[in-house]
Design a protein that fits this description.
It comes from Phalacrocorax carbo. This is Junctional adhesion molecule B. There is one protein chain. With 245 residues, the chain is an alpha+beta fold. It has two helices and 18 strands. The protein has two domains: 85 residues, Immunoglobulin-like (Sandwich), CATH 2.60.40; 98 residues, Immunoglobulin-like (Sandwich), CATH 2.60.40.
């Protein structure tokens, strides 16, 4: 449960009107109005004097609340308000990781890791072969020169600008926000291979030979007059048809 306290200094003899509102990006909505709760809090919240007790809080209850009190007396009407921010802490769920199964050396490769339930938002740590990867920290570190990747712990991306065969391995990501246990995605292997130049040359030569054979076939057919005979036969048929008419 969560208790939103709202204390005032109005005298007991005054007639009080209490309202609670939730301030959101899309506007302001009533939470407690005209003596009853509205919206998501209906049935699971109660008043504690001028404050609110919320039972079974959820992530949706996070936000900014405003308590507004108006008091009437013989001197007139008095107004007062207080703003409270409620942050509901939620442990992270299992992140979704995207790791390419294969890549060519020298290409740009990006691995991603994300989970959306944690509150506050999770930070991410990538592992290779069970060992946590180091975060690149500027040029003053001697180790930075040997790091071929950029790891963003806020967004969960692991970027290789020029991936190498040494980057082959088994990768997984861990999400944590200080609430509950950290969560890991399943291990995925990325295989980095050199570009098979010889295979590409063989494929190009094979395609060129096939195209050459097709061209020779067409040339041979024309030389033998296959296409000409067919055309003459068609003309003869048309001529006979005209004569019959």
């Amino acid at each position: 449960e969560a208790i939103l306290s709202c204390k005032h200094k109005f005298s007991k003899g005054m007639s009080l009107r209490i309202e609670w509102k939730k301030i959101q990006s899309q506007g302001v909505s009533f939470v407690y109005y005209n003596g009853e709760f509205t919206g998501d809090l209906r049935g699971r919240a109660e008043m504690l004097n001028t404050g609110i007790r919320i039972r079974n809080v959820t992530r949706r209850d996070s936000g900014t609340y405003r308590c507004e009190i108006s008091a009437k007396s013989e001197e007139g009407q008095h107004l007062g308000e207080a703003t409270i921010t409620l942050t509901v802490l939620v442990a992270p769920t299992t992140p979704v990781c995207e790791v390419p199964s294969s890549a060519m050396t020298g290409t740009v490769v990006e691995l991603s890791c994300k989970e959306t339930e944690g509150s506050p938002p999770s930070e991410y740590q990538w592992y290779k072969n069970g060992v946590p990867l180091l975060e690149k920290r500027g040029t003053d570190s001697a180790r930075a020169a040997n790091i071929t990747y950029t790891m963003n712990k806020k967004s969960g991306t692991l970027l290789f600008n020029t991936v190498t065969k040494n980057d082959t391995g088994e990768y997984f990501c861990e999400a944590s926000n200080g609430i509950g246990l950290s969560q890991k995605c399943s291990v995925k292997r990325m295989q980095v291979d050199d570009l098979n130049v010889s295979g590409i040359i063989v494929a190009v030569v094979f395609v060129a030979l096939v195209m050459a054979l097709c061209g020779l076939g067409v040339f041979y057919a024309q030389k033998k007059g296959y296409f000409t005979k067919e055309s003459a036969s068609q003309k003869k048929t048309n001529y006979q048809s005209t004569s019959e008419k």
